[in-house]
Write a sequence for this structure.
């Protein structure tokens, strides 16, 4: 339940944490003083965030907080320190002090007592707002819209990133905290350019603060700030470059400050530049259908896009900003936490305030159970390597709108079919060239724009044997790429397809359609010229005659096709200029999923060999190579084997979460290039009978409740 939300991420900045060291005689002994490694790299985080409202500073008891952290098996606390308000006696006149703070030693006591029990402390800063008294003294520090409006939440005013508060005072606040407390990390919430009031759902426009105007003019050789967000406007494109530059410049300077004081302080925020821990969030959705794979989606994207970082995906307890004191359903939290650890994140819970007297404690038993499980089996988590040969390219780290629906629909098809896959953020393709070229299939679900370098990497991968699948309006703004990769020319990228039909007439490819001759359509159905392609499939039929049964019909071939394939020397590139993923995500008809599955069988038939099972579609299967997490540096040479995680999603109904249905006698046949020395269940710690022959391992899971992990040791 916090303000860690998606809007700040587009342009946030990572904020760094501060250090502590100094004046050791005046400070309690800190864990870092004896550390010889960067503690977070162990990737065994069990975080609990107490996102404190101001008034809880008057009642928080460090002793009871510590007891609760121990009862929940937490090893890291994330707690308020400063920014919007100081939760300690700040000596800085521009740092508003929490008026409810009675015990001046509260934060110091929390840090000291946590360290005595081996619990790390990351402190939270939010420099997005200042209290009204600070605003009145320095109105030039704050945001102003093109219409002259401020962004205000009660008595808190949104600041401007290029004004002195963020550019100077924020550094001094963090320095003060570092000097006063032996903290282990700094978490930056809501950094960057603020143009929305997320708590009220209102957009205000590009910041017109005088400091922003001056700095943009310096950056752009005299240009004036744009007043509208228009991606087609070169001025706005220049402004986007400016925002990226200023954010990274600020982050770099803060990182330099913090690491110069103590390199053992972890910097945590939502992006990767100059950060140690990338934080992500699983939040309650405001639209249907809910997305039960939110944690798998977030973590898989982050660990594959930023392989040199530790990822901590937080399960946000609150239902919404307007309903912070009501938590999401326990079974949803269970799924999020299991997906976290199965995909390579630690555990992370963000709750509204102290754990004592909490307004909604229904999730406590679930949290305790899974945190204890992680603690008990810690060596089996945190050091994973994917086995996937398929990658899905994500439209950023926080996708939204119809593009998100297209993307999620493709993920859903693969998840339900138990086909292992990785996720890579679109902007990271150029930075992961070797990794990208190792995939056998890469899917672009409506990825409309890629940099020139990213396109080069993809084209080189196709030349070396990577098959490519692109959907809907993918790459529509680079017609030369469409022609080169897919042999396609765009006639119109947007065409409402309601009433049209597709024909799966080639049964040698579309083997799942033995009983269907026509597939209904809805949403976009792009019209493309595939004359330069080598193969065309799925003829598009006209809309025909709507009306009573007596007059319907008339669905005739249009001459267009919904799929074109161009053969490359070692691979195939397939374009489906249709909203395939969105249609499945919104409506769930199996015929639309079967289009993708038949296509994958056609271009990469080995995709279904990696995991073969009778498990239902709502059992999420995550297969990983693993190395025991003992704190030692590891390489692929000392991998210990594989782990197959099973997460039971049968309790998810689309708009609510019930307890999962128990299952028996699930059979598995998975690819394994080694004969295991043993196979056992992590949950019940019992051996699992298995057979291994010709590179395939077979075994049964006798009982699946909510979660299971099968460890396959070399």
């Amino acid at each position: 339940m916090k303000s860690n939300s998606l809007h700040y991420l587009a342009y946030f900045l990572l904020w760094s944490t501060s250090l502590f060291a100094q004046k050791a005689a005046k400070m309690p002994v800190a864990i870092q003083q004896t550390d010889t490694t960067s503690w977070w790299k162990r990737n065994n985080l069990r975080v609990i965030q107490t996102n404190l409202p101001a008034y809880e500073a008057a009642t928080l008891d460090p002793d009871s907080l510590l007891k609760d952290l121990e009862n929940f098996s937490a090893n890291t606390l994330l707690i308020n320190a400063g920014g919007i308000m100081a939760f300690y006696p700040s000596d800085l006149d521009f740092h508003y002090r929490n008026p409810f703070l009675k015990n001046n030693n509260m934060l110091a006591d929390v840090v000291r007592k946590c360290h005595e029990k081996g619990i790390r402390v990351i402190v939270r800063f939010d420099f997005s707002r200042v209290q009204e008294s600070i605003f009145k003294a320095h109105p030039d520090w704050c945001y102003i819209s093109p219409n002259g409006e401020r962004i205000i939440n009660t008595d808190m005013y949104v600041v401007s990133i290029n004004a002195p508060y963020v550019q100077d005072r924020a550094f001094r606040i963090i320095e003060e905290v570092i000097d006063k407390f032996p903290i282990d990390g700094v978490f930056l919430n809501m950094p960057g350019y603020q143009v929305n009031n997320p708590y009220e759902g209102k957009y205000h426009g590009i910041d017109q603060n005088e400091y922003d105007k001056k700095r943009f003019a310096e950056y752009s050789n005299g240009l004036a700030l744009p007043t509208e967000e228009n991606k087609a406007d070169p001025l706005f494109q220049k402004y986007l470059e400016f925002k990226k530059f200023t954010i990274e410049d600020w982050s770099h300077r803060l990182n330099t400050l913090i690491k110069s004081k103590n390199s053992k302080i972890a910097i945590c925020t939502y992006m990767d530049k100059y950060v140690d821990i990338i934080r992500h969030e699983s939040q309650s959705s405001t639209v249907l259908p809910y997305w039960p794979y939110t944690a798998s989606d977030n973590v898989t994207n982050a660990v594959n896009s930023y392989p040199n970082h530790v990822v901590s995906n937080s399960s946000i307890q609150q239902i919404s900003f307007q309903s912070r004191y009501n938590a999401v359903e326990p079974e949803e939290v269970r799924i999020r936490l299991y997906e976290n650890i199965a995909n390579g994140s630690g555990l992370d819970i963000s709750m509204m305030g102290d754990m004592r007297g909490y307004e909604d404690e229904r999730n406590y038993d679930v949290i305790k159970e899974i945190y204890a499980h992680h603690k008990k089996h810690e060596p089996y988590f945190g050091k994973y390597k994917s086995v996937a040969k398929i990658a899905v390219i994500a439209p950023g780290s926080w996708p939204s709108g119809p593009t998100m629906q297209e993307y999620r629909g493709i993920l859903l098809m693969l998840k339900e079919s138990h086909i292992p896959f990785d996720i890579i953020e679109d902007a990271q393709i150029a930075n992961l060239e070797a990794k990208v070229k190792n995939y056998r299939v890469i899917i672009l679900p409506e990825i409309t724009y890629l940099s020139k370098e990213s396109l080069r990497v993809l084209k080189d991968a196709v030349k070396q044997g990577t098959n490519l699948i692109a959907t809907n309006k993918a790459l529509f703004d680079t017609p030369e790429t469409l022609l080169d990769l897919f042999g396609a020319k765009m006639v119109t990228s947007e065409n409402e397809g309601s009433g049209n039909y597709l024909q799966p007439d080639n049964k040698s490819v579309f083997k799942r359609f033995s009983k269907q001759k026509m597939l209904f359509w809805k949403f976009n159905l792009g019209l493309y010229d595939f004359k330069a392609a080598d193969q065309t499939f799925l003829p598009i039929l006209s809309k025909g005659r709507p009306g009573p049964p007596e007059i319907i019909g008339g669905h005739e071939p249009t001459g267009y096709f919904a799929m074109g394939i161009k053969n490359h020397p070692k691979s195939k590139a397939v374009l489906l200029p249709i909203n395939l993923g969105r249609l499945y995500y919104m409506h769930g008809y199996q015929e639309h999923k079967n289009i993708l599955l038949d296509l994958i069988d056609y271009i990469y038939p080995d995709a279904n060999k990696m995991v073969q099972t009778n498990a239902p579609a709502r059992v999420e299967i995550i297969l990983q190579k693993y190395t025991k997490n003992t704190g030692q540096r590891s390489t692929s040479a000392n991998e210990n084997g594989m782990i197959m995680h099973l997460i039971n999603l049968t309790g998810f109904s689309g708009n609510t979460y019930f307890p999962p249905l128990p299952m028996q006698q699930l059979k598995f046949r998975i690819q394994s290039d080694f004969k295991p020395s043993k196979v056992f269940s992590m949950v019940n710690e019992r051996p699992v009978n298995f057979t291994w022959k010709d590179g395939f391992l077979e075994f049964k899971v006798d009982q699946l409740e909510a979660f299971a992990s099968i460890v396959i040791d070399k």
